[in-house]
Amino acid sequence: MRWILALTWLAFIAYAWIWAPGQPLGSDPVFKELVTLQSKEPWLLTVFSWLGIFPAIFACLLLRRSGKARGSRVHAWPFVLLSFGLGAFALLPYFAWSSQTHRGSGYEQLSFARQRESGIGRVAAHKLTHMVLLLLTLGTGFYAVTQGNPDVYMEAFRESSFVHIMTIDFVILTLLSVIALFRDASLNRRSCGWAVAGLIPLIGPLIYLMTARRD
Question: Helix (H, G, I), strand (E, B), or coil: what is residue 160?
Answer without folding.
Answer: strand
